[in-house]
Amino acid sequence: MLEVLDTVRDFFIAFLFFYPLFMAYLWMIGAVYYYWRRERGRPSYRNEPKLPHYPGVSLVVPCFNEGAHLVETIEALARQTYPNFEIIAVNDGSSDETGTTLDALAAEYECLRVVHFTGNQGKAMGLRMAAMVSPHEFLVCIDGDALLDPHATTWIMSHFINGPRVGAVTGNPRIRTRSTLLGRVQVGEFSAIIGMIKRAQRIYGRVFTVSGVVSGFRKSALHQVGYWGLDKVTEDIDISWKLQINHWDIRFEPNALCWILMPETLRGLWKQRVRWAQGGYEVLLHNLPRMFRWKVRRMWPVVLEFLVAMAWSYSMLAVAVLWLLGCFLPLPEYLALPSMIPDWPGVVLGLTCLLQFAVSLTIDARYEGGLGRYYYWMIWYPLAFWLISLFSSIVGLPRAIFKRRGRRATWVSPDRGIAGENAGEGS
């Protein structure tokens, strides 16, 4: 019996080490293959493709207390090179100057329409309302503090025109808050983790989520799946799973750039990551029963990846608790664990992490120059972001399980980094 328990303990220790190592190399191989097949040799993002026709597009901006950023956001949308678009901004019961700013902008830009909610209804309801009032089949949705590259709409639309089963296209968010260490590290994270995972997941056909900050949608696909869920804290994960379960394809367009603000404080980053984790669990729990059907087998790699990541987080927590107990109490031999201080496995994981960042920043260099200078900040990523992601994943699950069903997910004002705060003060 003791031998069996020793084997179980050794298995968990090996799992903690080999799982992140395996996923890192899986993502690197997938991203390099994606780049080699679909990005290498393509024109620059500034040289957008010539489309056979240009159907109408609604550029959608749901807003809650975005008064400090809306002028530059709308100006960027108005500079789109796509020839046939309108802008729909939804003011979701903001308590700041968002409403008056949007009304003033609507008087300046004929292509801008504004919808006002009297109360905070949540981002999902704002997106739904924009889809209802839009006369067009296609939507490109961005956040109220984001700056869409002038060529992005054309790149996104190229997928809808060439793919009748394309339900959504996720763009390439780029960080513009780089005032602190957390901000600089996120520049690498969005390339090495988010961009790399999207490329790798496209290889096996399904993505975990579109980027809520910049994505295009086919309205008939949204209508079929019932639009964005009103009770999910991450409406982007929810709509991604709905579309793919109903056999709509989601593509990644790295040339569709969008410059975004991100948290630059530990508190802001923690709240954001807990929300992301909770949202992922909510969608998983909601859809898990239907995942056993053969018709949705292409979602199985995404579900398996998420479940194993969850198991790894809680295994890590269990090992850490046992290690702490072992520091103060005598434990049975089969529960005795090696030191949590990184030894050669930690060195291997650290070097793999740096290799992953090197590969991803090399791939992304075609979309943003000067990324190499952020590589040296990446050495802090395992310490800062792995721990935050680990604990946010652990906290997110009980929040998703015990959340009251059907409760509307509404807005909170996010941390937009020091650069974002300064932008607000100056406007």
Automatic annotation (TrEMBL):
What keywords are assigned to this protein?
Cell membrane, Glycosyltransferase, Membrane, Transferase, Transmembrane, Transmembrane helix
Gene3D superfamilies the UniProt entry points to: Spore Coat Polysaccharide Biosynthesis Protein SpsA, Chain A
- GO biological process assignments: cell adhesion involved in biofilm formation
Name the Enzyme Commission number(s) assigned to this protein: 2.4.1.-
Q: What does the UniProt entry say about where the protein is found? A: Cell membrane
Q: Which residues cross the membrane?
A: 12-36, 300-324, 344-363, 375-397
Q: Name one GO cellular component term.
A: plasma membrane
Enzymatic class: transferase
Q: Which GO terms describe its molecular function?
A: acetylglucosaminyltransferase activity
Q: What membrane topology term does the record carry?
A: Multi-pass membrane protein
Q: Which InterPro entries match?
A: Nucleotide-diphossugar_trans (IPR029044), PGA_PgaC/IcaA (IPR023853)
> Where is it mostly found?
membrane
The superkingdom listed in its UniProt entry is Bacteria
Name the family.
Belongs to the glycosyltransferase 2 family.
What name does the UniProt record give this protein?
Poly-beta-1,6-N-acetyl-D-glucosamine synthase
Q: Which organism is it from?
A: Geoalkalibacter subterraneus
